[in-house]
Design brief:
Distance between the termini: 50 Å
CATH class of the largest domain: Mainly Beta
Shape: elongated
Number of strands: 10
Structural class: alpha+beta
Number of domains: 2
Helix content: 40-55%
Largest sheet: 4 strands, antiparallel
Order of helices and strands: HEEEEEHEEHHHEHHEEH
Oligomer: single chain
């Protein structure tokens, strides 16, 4: 639901996360209430091929941005956390083209959705323009790493790497892993069964237990 703009915790948090917003025109307190949003987990904020309705500035929560294929497969591109920007939205606004990916709130999320006209006016502020272009460059570097992983790493390496760094017990599904890796669930299931036969993991319902993290680390490295 929309939240009211004006002096208070919401604007204070926005300025703490994005200090350059203190110098933009129009000022935050001048924006309409519909620009300040609070949405539940699972809310689709934008979709592929739709016009971009605005530039999202995340104050709380997280937005997952992913590409989806006609056969149902998807590939996560990146996530937008507080203090970060959405590359897909900014590219759409810069070029005036439809959106190239989908954005979904992964948890209850609070954000400012600056409409295209407001975003264009904000870009006239040197500080805001530098922030957007700087974070844009960082996002491009992340996407380059993702392209390298998809194009040059074997899927078993990527799956082994995806299982690491979450502790010994992971609450996830084969489908969720497949979406993260941009492949089919059946392929992930087959690889997980192989890892389980090798004694690296134990699979349960929506749960994976890591039994041999060292083996997964070796499997995730270059070959």
């Amino acid at each position: 639901m929309p939240i009211e703009p004006g002096p208070g915790p919401t604007l204070e948090r926005a300025l703490a996360l994005y200090p350059v917003l203190a110098a933009v025109d129009p000022a935050l307190h001048e924006l309409p209430a519909t620009v300040f949003l609070r949405v539940p987990e699972g809310t689709v904020l934008f979709r592929e091929q739709a016009p971009c309705l605005g530039f999202p500035i995340v104050l709380e929560g997280e937005v997952k941005v992913s590409r989806h294929a006609a056969d149902g497969r998807s590939l996560e591109l990146y996530r937008v956390s507080p203090g970060e920007i959405c590359l897909v939205s900014s590219a759409c606004l810069f070029r005036g083209t439809p959106l190239a990916a989908r954005g979904v709130a992964t948890r209850p999320t609070e954000l400012i959705l600056a409409d295209p006209r407001t975003f264009e006016r904000w870009l006239q502020s040197p500080g805001f323009r530098a922030l957007v272009l700087g974070l844009y460059a960082e996002r491009m570097a992340e996407l380059t790493e993702l392209i390298d992983a998809v194009a040059f790493q074997r899927l078993d390496q990527r799956l082994a790497a995806a299982l690491l760094g979450h502790g010994p017990d992971i609450a996830t599904t084969h489908q969720a892993l497949a979406e993260d890796l941009g492949t089919a669930r059946e392929i992930v299931s087959r690889l997980l069964r192989r890892f389980e036969r090798d004694g690296w993991i134990a699979c349960g319902r929506e749960h994976i237990r890591i039994l041999d993290a060292a083996a997964l680390r070796r499997a995730s490295g270059p070959r």
